[in-house]
Q: What sequence folds into this?
């Protein structure tokens, strides 16, 4: 039998399916009046530690909820359990040996376990990774990046996609600056080069430095919604 | 390895668009700024296509170089490497015109 090949023009964006789901997530957040933060960083930059400080500071003032994304383990969620807040862990492990990011569908799978109506701010703690999470919208209002001064000055230039997409950068572990050769001015210059005008906040989850400023930024964002 | 997620999405799009026919080739456009490793995407594609109408299909990726317009001097230039910098004045504040594509352009389908 003779077979002929025909060409079919498709023109379909590969991430359309994810973006559609992200939009659906966003509609859920908006209906529940939940402000949603996609928090991203490399592994070990201090996302969970900063979250702990944030929860301590905003307790009794704002109702926070957390969706924890991790390839494996519930270690981060366990750390936050003492705050008795709505908390759900999404392990990305059932993907292909552990996805390196959260996508809109994974976030959606965790939302059914969260009482969104009782949450003012939902923090989605993404999988620690400077590349992949930047590609996948999950329905967030805002992207906050945590960057630690132990990571070097040049990373904004090496991983521009993520740094470009951040609305705020928490420059963490600044209590270590005196022990490092890290050139803060150079880092801030590199950050501004790839994401002009983005606001950096110097923080230390260890000493609590900058947590007030970061929480102030959050309050302001909420007021402007 | 977000390439696997992307490959999964490509296979899904191709399978749906095939309308029951066999797919022999998938043509994609991949922008330079997408940070996609072509060999990783091709590997994931081959793996995930198994058992679908896309099994055995060739994945052709056209890489699209990045191009941007400088918000300072207005010059449009190619953006070859990081940091992304205007070819005219060296500025960093750029409006990206090309290089963010991630699209299934067309399929080659087998007709009986």
A:
């Amino acid at each position: 039998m003779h077979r002929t090949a025909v060409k079919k023009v498709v023109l379909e964006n590969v991430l359309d399916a994810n973006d559609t789901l992200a939009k659906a997530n966003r509609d859920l957040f908006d209906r529940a009046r939940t402000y949603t933060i996609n928090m991203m960083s490399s592994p070990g930059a201090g996302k969970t530690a900063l979250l702990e400080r944030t929860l301590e500071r905003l307790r009794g003032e704002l109702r926070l909820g957390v969706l924890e994304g991790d390839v494996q383990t519930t270690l981060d969620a366990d750390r936050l359990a003492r705050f008795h807040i709505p908390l759900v862990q999404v392990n990305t492990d059932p993907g292909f040996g552990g996805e390196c990011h959260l996508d809109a569908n994974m976030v959606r799978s965790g939302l059914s376990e969260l009482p969104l109506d009782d949450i003012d701010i939902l923090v989605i703690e993404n999988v620690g990774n400077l590349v992949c999470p930047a590609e996948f919208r999950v329905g967030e209002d805002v992207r906050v990046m945590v960057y630690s001064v132990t990571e070097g000055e040049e990373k904004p230039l090496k991983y521009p996609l993520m740094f470009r997409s951040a609305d705020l950068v928490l420059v963490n572990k600044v209590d270590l600056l005196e022990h490092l050769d890290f050139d803060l001015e150079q880092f801030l210059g590199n950050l501004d080069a790839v994401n002009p005008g983005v606001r950096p906040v110097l923080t230390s989850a260890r000493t609590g430095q900058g947590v007030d400023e970061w929480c102030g930024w959050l309050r302001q964002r909420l007021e402007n919604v | 390895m977000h390439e696997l997620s992307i490959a999964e999405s490509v296979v899904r799009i191709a399978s749906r668009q095939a309308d029951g026919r066999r797919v022999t080739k998938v043509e994609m456009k991949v922008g330079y700024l997408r940070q996609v490793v072509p060999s990783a995407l091709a590997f994931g594609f081959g793996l995930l296509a198994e058992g679908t109408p896309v099994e055995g299909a060739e994945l052709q990726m056209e890489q699209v170089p990045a191009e941007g317009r400088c918000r300072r001097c207005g010059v449009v230039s190619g953006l070859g490497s990081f940091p992304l910098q205007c070819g005219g004045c060296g500025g960093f504040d750029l409006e990206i015109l090309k290089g963010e594509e991630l699209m299934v352009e067309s399929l080659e389908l087998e007709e009986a």
